[in-house]
């Protein structure tokens, strides 16, 4: 029911019910005159099996595109790709200021906005502790620990109350590089009164506290010092704390660091600009690898997620132009495979082991920790902030459902379950779901964006499963077939289950169908195409057990 009163609403368009593509809207004002802000604008990675030909996915922002005159700005919590990766692609549809801290701003400029053809995004630097006011919103960036520097929660104030959007966070008293999640800052928000907390759910199913980056640093120092020969470490390029830990480990035992991979180079450059690598010598370029003694070098490599074009994958295939490993060398995966990447990571590990390289992962050593809070950390956050309402975000269905139970156990009076497109009224009155609006995904296909209704992706899935049959034939105006039909099969096995060549099955189906049609029916090119298509699919299903896609073209002469 439309009302003229001011309302505070929350609307996720990405990142709820999934990992990645984070994009959340907050609106304030009467329904017909509401002003909006967006928190984060991130991308996700598409799996080749589910989305053939597609590498990247973005949230569908059509809801706010239709209201972009009322969108006041985009606020970035931190510089991970699942929070900033859609800016360059989607910002031209919104054209509003983007607010980010120095590190996030510089990395965004280096990684996405430095590419050819990138838009000239209006970036505004934010300093934590300095309030930003846009329209009816007052926003404070509240520093938190995470696996990238300058991560922040966002405290959003309106006349209707204070909402805490946590972003990605954890509690780490010694994060090596980056912020500490300060109890006092969040206790002060709790004392002020938190109307609602919109909180990270990633590790809610895990008990206890997440280990500290400092513990990983100690393990890396030990593993590098004990290595008899070369050491290569792969990690997320954005994890500056891990980069610093590797560099300190190398420095402690007289080794030099060689940085390998464009993503790694970009982050290192920005980290040095912002002072996060102060006190460490410059890293060497990859072409210096062959000239350094085998026991005096450590490589920092991209490719921890098995990306086939990244440095580590090329090293494992022995086709990297500069970096080679040999038996007795050591590779450390200072990372954990994101769900869906396990097979690609496993293939790299197997290739390295076949070469006699020692591979160390987090299965045997503390070489990686998550940047997200486990349950005991979440207990602390809820105790500090004492929210009236909790909305679980940043997780799949399992995480969101468990977080809802967890929040109730912490004494939160109102817990609202959301999915992408769920419009929730936070105030006035009891929080409640108002409606469900359009929310979906956009896919980067080559140089264009397509939505989830585009036929290209499902057609490619079908082609991948059952191949393609192509038939071209000519028929004159009297209904006479001219010459022999041109037939080709793509992606089909050579022979069916009885041993018959499948190309012959197709040719016979075409010939029999054309022979069974009258002159009058042969004059109907559309009818002929349908009849031939149906006959081919039926014949192949009998001979092979699958129905491929068919492309039948009748040329009228």
TrEMBL record:
<dbReference type="InterPro" id="IPR011108">
    <property type="entry name" value="RMMBL"/>
</dbReference>
<dbReference type="Pfam" id="PF17770">
    <property type="entry name" value="RNase_J_C"/>
</dbReference>
<dbReference type="InterPro" id="IPR001279">
    <property type="entry name" value="Metallo-B-lactamas"/>
</dbReference>
<dbReference type="InterPro" id="IPR041636">
    <property type="entry name" value="RNase_J_C"/>
</dbReference>
<feature type="domain" description="Metallo-beta-lactamase">
    <location>
        <begin position="20"/>
        <end position="220"/>
    </location>
</feature>
<keyword id="KW-0540">Nuclease</keyword>
<dbReference type="GO" id="GO:0003723">
    <property type="term" value="F:RNA binding"/>
</dbReference>
<dbReference type="InterPro" id="IPR042173">
    <property type="entry name" value="RNase_J_2"/>
</dbReference>
<keyword id="KW-0694">RNA-binding</keyword>
<keyword id="KW-0378">Hydrolase</keyword>
<dbReference type="Pfam" id="PF00753">
    <property type="entry name" value="Lactamase_B"/>
</dbReference>
<keyword id="KW-0479">Metal-binding</keyword>
<dbReference type="InterPro" id="IPR036866">
    <property type="entry name" value="RibonucZ/Hydroxyglut_hydro"/>
</dbReference>
<keyword id="KW-0269">Exonuclease</keyword>
<keyword id="KW-0862">Zinc</keyword>
<protein>
    <submittedName>
        <fullName>Ribonuclease J</fullName>
        <ecNumber>3.1.-.-</ecNumber>
    </submittedName>
</protein>
<dbReference type="GO" id="GO:0046872">
    <property type="term" value="F:metal ion binding"/>
</dbReference>
<dbReference type="InterPro" id="IPR055132">
    <property type="entry name" value="RNase_J_b_CASP"/>
</dbReference>
<dbReference type="GO" id="GO:0004527">
    <property type="term" value="F:exonuclease activity"/>
</dbReference>
<dbReference type="Pfam" id="PF22505">
    <property type="entry name" value="RNase_J_b_CASP"/>
</dbReference>
<dbReference type="Pfam" id="PF07521">
    <property type="entry name" value="RMMBL"/>
</dbReference>
């Amino acid at each position: 029911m439309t009302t003229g009163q001011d309302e505070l609403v929350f609307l996720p368009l990405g990142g709820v019910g999934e990992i990645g593509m984070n994009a959340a809207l907050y609106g304030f004002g009467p329904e017909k005159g509401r002003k909006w802000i967006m928190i984060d604008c991130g991308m996700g990675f598409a799996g080749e099996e589910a989305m053939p030909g597609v590498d990247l996915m973005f949230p569908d922002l059509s809801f706010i595109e239709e209201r972009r005159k009322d969108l006041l700005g985009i606020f970035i919590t931190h510089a991970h790709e699942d929070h900033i990766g859609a800016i360059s692609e989607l910002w031209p549809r919104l054209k509003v200021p983007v607010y980010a801290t120095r590190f996030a701003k510089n990395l965004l400029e280096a990684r996405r906005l430095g590419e050819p053809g990138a838009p000239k995004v209006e970036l505004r630097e934010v300093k934590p502790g300095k309030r930003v006011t846009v329209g009816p919103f007052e926003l404070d960036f509240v520093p938190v620990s995470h696996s990238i520097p300058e991560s922040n929660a966002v405290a959003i104030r309106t006349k209707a109350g204070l909402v805490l959007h946590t972003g990605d966070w954890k509690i780490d008293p010694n994060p090596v590089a980056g912020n500490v999640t300060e109890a006092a800052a969040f206790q002060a928000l709790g004392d002020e009164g938190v109307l609602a907390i919109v909180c990270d759910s990633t590790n809610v199913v895990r008990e206890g506290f997440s280990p500290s980056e400092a513990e990983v640093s100690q393990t890396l120092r030990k593993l590098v010092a004990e290595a008899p020969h070369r050491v290569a470490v792969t990690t997320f390029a954005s994890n500056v704390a891990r980069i610093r830990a590797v560099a300190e480990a190398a420095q402690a035992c007289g080794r030099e660091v060689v940085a390998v991979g464009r993503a790694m180079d970009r982050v290192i450059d920005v980290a040095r600009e912002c002072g996060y690598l102060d006190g460490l010598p410059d890293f060497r370029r990859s072409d210096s690898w062959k000239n350094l003694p085998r026991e005096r070098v450590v490589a920092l490599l991209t490719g921890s997620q098995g990306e086939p074009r990244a440095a580590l994958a090329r090293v494992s295939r022995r086709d990297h132009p500069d970096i080679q490993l040999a038996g007795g060398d050591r590779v450390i995966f200072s990372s954990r495979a994101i769900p869906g990447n396990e097979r690609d990571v496993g293939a790299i590990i197997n290739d390295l082991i076949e070469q006699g390289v020692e591979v160390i992962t987090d299965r045997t050593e503390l070489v990686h920790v998550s940047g997200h809070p486990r349950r005991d950390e979440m207990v602390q956050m809820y105790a500090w902030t004492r929210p009236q309402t909790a909305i679980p975000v940043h997780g799949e269905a399992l995480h969101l459902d468990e977080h809802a139970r967890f929040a109730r156990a912490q004494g939160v009076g109102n817990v609202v379950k959301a999915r992408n497109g769920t419009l929730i009224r936070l105030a006035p009155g009891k929080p409640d779901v108002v409606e469900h609006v359009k929310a979906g995904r956009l896919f980067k296909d080559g140089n264009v964006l397509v939505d989830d209704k585009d036929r290209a992706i499902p057609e490619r899935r079908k082609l991948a499963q059952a191949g393609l049959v192509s038939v071209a034939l000519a028929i004159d105006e009297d209904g006479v077939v001219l010459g022999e039909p041109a037939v080709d099969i793509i992606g089909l096995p050579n022979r069916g289950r009885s041993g018959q060549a499948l190309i012959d099955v197709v040719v016979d189906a075409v010939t029999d169908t054309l022979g069974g049609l009258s002159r009058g029916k042969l004059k109907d090119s559309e009818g002929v195409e349908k009849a031939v298509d149906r006959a081919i699919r039926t014949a192949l299903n009998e001979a092979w057990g699958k129905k491929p896609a068919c492309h039948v073209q009748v040329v009228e002469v």
